[in-house]
Amino acid sequence: MLKEKDFHFCDPTWCSGCGIYSIFSALKKTAVTLEMKPEETVVVTGIGCHGRLNNYFKAYGFHTLHGRSLPVAQGIKLANRQLSVIAVSGDGDTYSIGLGHFIHALRRNVNLTYVVVNNMIYGLTQGQTSPTSRKGFVSKSTPLGSKESPLCGPHLALVSGGTFIARGFSGAPKQLSSLLEKGIQHTGFSLIEVFSPCVTHNLANTYDWFRRNTFDVDQAKGYDPRNREKAWEFLNNRQRLAMGLLYQEKSPSFDDLVLPVKTPLVQSQMFFDQKKWDKIFKEFE
Ligand SMILES: Cc1ncc(C[n+]2csc(CCOP(=O)(O)OP(=O)(O)O)c2C)c(N)n1
Ligand code: SF4
Ligand SMILES: [Mg+2]
Asked: Could you say which of 9, 196, 245, 269 is the most buried, measured as most Cβ atoms within 10 Å of its Cβ?
């Protein structure tokens, strides 16, 4: 049986105390629990501090363009359904430049896991306001305080047809591992947004801030992750941000609907009809 060290390629260089360390650890733990294999796993990342995760996690990796981890991850899964595909993105990567991909991936429901590292800031570019930054947030790009309302990823996921919507916190590693486990086992697209403090550039949304401003849905009255209305209600709480497994439904994945077998495309028998091909070519002569 593999151990966590088997998924550890090299030591990360994130700032000391960065929340992403905890996500890296939780991912290694989950890989061991689910008996995943490095050679059957792909970690696809976007651009940002989160994007370095695939350099450290021992598996196949693809460091894509800014906001583009989802098209690549979906393509990989559809080309080889035998792989476990985990995409890792950021709040800027997903909710700014990658927002269109996010919404379509939710309604498409390809069988993969999407982790959004939400530190409420652009970390890699050294501290600009992001779509999840709180109103009034002072940063290099909003020195007078942000005048825009923050966007809520899980809310968007719920109205876009998401079938697994969860939110974890890098300060709560046990819950995070459990959410990752459930997300990877879910059939279809699983979204796990993770509150992950950027200790260098975001001095407002600290570990303490998240502890004070969040609540766990599974402790709340009437909690049932199959209940869409309840999830909506939890997410509407503007005072405290909802955490945990917010919503899950059973629905066939896109891969199940369009690909009849699990054989990787590269090993599939392609039925090539030379006559049909010649006919098509003739039309262009
Ligand atoms: C097309 C393009 N536009 C802009 C950038 C500059 N850029 C790099 S990372 C980044 C934001 C990253 O923020 P986030 O996704 O929140 O990641 P974090 O660093 O916080 O993990 C931006 C705007 C880029 N690399 N490519
Ligand atoms: S800049 Fe922020 S997000 Fe990036 S590694 Fe440092 S603490 Fe983490
Ligand atoms: Mg960020």
From this structure: 196
